[in-house]
Write a structure and sequence with these properties.
By secondary structure, the chain is α/β, with parallel strands linked by helices. 37% of the residues lie in helices and 23% in strands. The N and C termini lie close together (8 Å).
């Protein structure tokens, strides 16, 4: 049986349909905290129609959201489509992690899902670099211990701040990537600085965390910007853009009601 999994981030909402082994649908839409449940239901209905998925056959769902206002909205939207209540990642759901930060309740549900998937696929330590609105680096130790995290401004956020707060630097596209390390015109200088600056930051952070752990970790990158940055990193980094959805699948299956199995 398949189910719906949704992660609501600050910039994008990831919508997935999964079964116990496969990701059947993975799509992104722009986050809008002012949309109503009916509007999100229309979007879900159209996505399912395009991908030929019958919402009424889905056995349930799970939601992760770092936008508090969207939790109930998305739950209501999904109910309109599949007629079932969704699980919401948070206190009360079994996830298998041993969260060892000062206040476990502060850990974002997206980071929880990513760590659950990483712990299931790798024998720690694992560093998860999520390049989204913010760039986060989660540290997962052996035995599924969540040891902590670093949070830095994301690539797009940094670029927007740079261009918004300077008089002569234009808004640019990063689509083409750098043509070298040192730029010879304003556009290339910004592109090179953003791409190589983020790659060097990630390499440096991984080096420092590895030294603190006294062990070489597996490094996994995900998020909408990871494929632009990872090729310029000197560290070996695995790219897994479905890590979060896979984590939501594990949490869903651990908490699925017996009558759904």
């Amino acid at each position: 049986m398949s189910f719906i999994a949704i992660n609501a981030g600050n910039t994008y909402i990831t919508i997935g349909v999964l079964d116990e082994e496969n990701v059947l649908l993975s799509s992104k839409i722009k986050t809008d905290r002012f949309r109503t449940a009916d509007e999100y239901a229309v979007i879900l209905h159209e996505l399912f129609r395009i991908h030929r998925i019958d919402g009424e056959t889905l056995e349930g769902g799970i939601i992760s959201s770092v936008v508090p206002a969207l939790k109930q909205t998305l739950q209501d939207a999904i109910y309109k489509i599949i007629g079932k209540q969704c699980l919401i990642v948070g206190p009360g759901l079994k996830n298998g992690l041993k969260i060892k930060i000062d206040n476990p309740a502060q850990l974002g549900s997206d980071l929880v899902a990513e760590a659950v998937a990483a712990a299931a696929e790798h024998r720690g330590p694992v560093l998860i670099v999520d390049m989204s609105t913010a760039t986060t680096v989660s540290v997962v130790g052996k035995n599924a211990d969540y040891l902590g995290c670093m949070i830095m401004p994301g690539m797009t956020l940094s670029l927007e701040a740079l261009c918004a707060h300077t008089a002569q630097l234009p808004h640019i596209s990063l689509a083409e990537g750098p043509r070298g390390v040192v730029g010879t015109n304003t556009n290339d200088c910004i592109v090179n600085g953003v791409i190589y600056g983020n790659a060097a930051m990630i390499d440096g952070v991984v080096d420092r965390i590895s030294a603190e752990l006294k062990e070489e970790p597996v490094v996994i990158a995900m998020g909408e910007r990871c494929e632009q940055i990872v090729p310029y990193c000197r560290r070996e980094i695995l790219v897994d853009k479905e890590l979060l959805l896979k984590g939501l699948r594990i949490i869903y299956l651990r908490n699925r009601k017996k009558d759904q199995v």
